[in-house]
Amino acid sequence: xxxxxxxxxxxxxxxxxxxxxxxxxxxxxxxxxxxxxxxxxxxxxxxxxxxxxxxxxxxxxxxxxxxxxxxxxxxxxxxxxxxxxxxxxxxxxxxxxxxxxxxxxxxxxxxxxxxxxxxxxxxxxxxxxxxxxxxxxxxxxxxxxxxxxxxxxxxxxxxxxxxxxxxxxxxxxxxxxxxxxxxxxxxxxxxxxxxxxxxxxxxxxxxxxxxxxxxxxxxxxxxxxxxxxxxxxxxxxxxxxxxxxxxxxxxxxxxxxxxxxxxxxxxxxxxxxxxxxxxxxxxxxxxxxxxxxxxxxxx
Length: 299
Known about the structure:
Layout lengths: L2 H28 L1 H23 L2 H6 L1 H22 L5 H8 L2 H13 L5 H21 L11 H25 L5 H22 L8 H29 L1 H5 L1 H16 L6 H17 L2 H6 L6
């Protein structure tokens, strides 16, 4: 990767890591549904004009059914899952479960698309899910917390969100290959906004959020969602999808760091070990380790 692309990759991981921090702070006040509606609505307001200016609106009209499903499985459901989880577990732990997305994508690709993993990738899947199990056994209390959500339910919401991301990646590959990425990005945010408008109005918070909480929602919607989408697709174009996907490995480091710095979230040994096992397993399952061992061609 060029130094500029590497810097953009790190910046993207920092933004997506910060998203877990903002969700953790604002979810109790806004509630998961209203928070996600504001997040995707703000992102759609930024991305749709860019879509129109880029001339890709026709693709949105042509593929609206598939993009609607992506809006449900790649935005609405996972964003809700992580927002529910924020009511009971810390930002760092949520981001670690988010890092299992490539594991779910590989498993779904095998079962649905027939992409049989190699022996090394099977080992990676086993190691990654063993790391998930270790964190589940360590954190999954059934006792509801302050906001009525138990850690077990929060963990289930995170795992469900990561599985949705894994399904959506495969569905996009199968049904939306060749569709302009901006059409998928903007269309999915618009679809999520439409799906959540009614429930958000029904579940709008009774208490008035503070100015600081509104600021965090704006940061979540604009830099952490709209700008992050643009950076991600730019990375895919400049560095390729394989390099762009390695952002998954950096997000937990930033999320854990932001949580410890600003929310005093504890850095426990089981948390760090579970994170390391999951990331190592994911690296094996996605072929990152094998790719790094492959000698570079001499041209």
